[in-house]
Amino acid sequence: MASCAIKDDIPFPIVEGAITAFEVEGQCDAEGNEGGTAVIDNNTRTVKVYVNDLVNVANLKVKRLEVSNEALIIKDSVVYGTSDKYSAKGYSQSASLSNLHADFTSDAIFTLRTWQDYEWTVKVDQIIDREVEIEGQVGNAIIDTYTRTVIVYVSERQDLHALKVHKFNLCGKHGSVSPNPMAQATYDFSEMRKFFVREAWSGNGHEWMVFVYPTTAEAETTASVFPRSVSATVNGELPNGTRPKVEYHRQGQSDWMTVPESQIKTTSTTYEAEIVGLQPGVIYEYRVTAGSSATSVQSFTTVAAIPLENGSFDNWSTASTGSQTVYQPWGDGQEGFWDTGNRGATTVGASNSTYVDEGGRRFANLQSKYIVIKFAAGNIFTGKYVETDGTNGVLSFGRPFNAFPTKLRFEYKYKTSPINRMGGDWKEPWGRYISRDMYENMKGKPDSCSVYIALGDWEPVMYKNTECPYLIRTRPSELHLFDLKDEHLIAYAQLTKGEDVNEWTTETLTLDYRVKNRQPKYIIVVASSSKYGDYFTGGDQSLLQVDNMELLYE
Prior knowledge:
By secondary structure, the protein is mostly beta strands. The chain has four domains: 19-126, Immunoglobulin-like (Sandwich); 131-215, Immunoglobulin-like, CATH 2.60.40.2340; 224-301, Immunoglobulins (Immunoglobulin-like); 317-552, BT2081, beta-jelly-roll domain (Jelly Rolls, Sandwich), CATH 2.60.120. Helix content is 1%, strand content 45%. Strands 29, 34, 35, 36, 40, 43, 44, 46 and 47 form a nine-stranded antiparallel sheet that branches. Strands 2, 3, 4, 6, 9 and 10 form a six-stranded mixed sheet that branches. The radius of gyration is 30 Å and the shape is flat.
């Protein structure tokens, strides 16, 4: 009888609850400009939002909250405004949560319930610009929000009894100051002055103290430079109330070129200038003048241009594995810069990433196929195929690279086919769940090819005895793919095409540099005949052909 006991051990299906859209009142970007979007990170289950100085973060209205898989939203104690503990089901929560407010002075927690609970953290940063600028000012004003104190140093030549105030912003651009020192031609700062500063978001106010002291120090213009391959950033300090003139020329030339005003950003005492149109691997000289202060002539060398190795895809060799031939994108006796997934495909079938000689040209021929037991997209990438883990691949993306190209240009043809192969269910290491059902709506639709380039300063990891700049794993239980939100990503560009391209077509991708003051360590270039090949999803007749891939520096 004991053996016939009924146990409640049927496992619940794993259905992820994720925030897919989030918007609050007064939302802006990190610089305070209107119209910013929330930064949603599925890996850490966090949402980051910026708001302006017109809203009260202690009672902030949530205008939009959308979730995946019809998850229920369970609010923590700082979230209020509705009578129900649980929100109504639905992909769009905006209607049912029209009265939802929350206290975002600290992190707010939203728990999304499906069969499991998924805890999401929402962080709200309020952008409050505080800036004081007084005639003859030396250095930036010291603004202490804790003690509500401001200290400003001005040149000893200035008359403290009659100082002209250029900026006096102590509580955001929408706050107010009384009395307003900018309302009169000059203001007396010969002794400590008190001002009543009112918040725009609450109407409340506080008293601030402002001290102005003379100093024998003189504001000077300084400059430092971060060179890239065809551009450079010059930044530094300058005397208050001045505009910088940034000049440059190639070393050995006599004429100076001036950086246009449109390429210079300034605050009251700092500047940042972009010099463009330079040549790689060349020595340039520059100087900066602001008011009566100027730097000495300094020099920098732009980073040399590095070509993309074997971008013509002319060099190939073969090797044998059992009864199969493995096509390799490097010549006999050469070191590989590119690799493919062929060593994984040939464990059960033939290479599906090969080359073709046609019309006097040789090019990469990337064919999506269903190989005996599994779908495999044709692919080629900069890096190394490390090993086959069961029927899954372990890859090392990336090759050493430290230049700053502006574009990736290549020729391609593409033959799409209906998506007829679907991967299984996936659980990523950080907890994100990807169900096969999520791709079912793609079935029968045209497959898409993908070509992308990424530059980054990733820290390599060791996989067994191989150093991997960026480790890729396709095993469902240990899935780790390329992440566009990776903080080490410096520049990126991508082509996705879901229709036939029957003739050789030239495509040029312009790299988007997310940061301009870090140098790449590695380059990743990937071409695939099926965009979702990493998930073993695509059309098994899709064919991508690629040739003459090169980096541009212009």
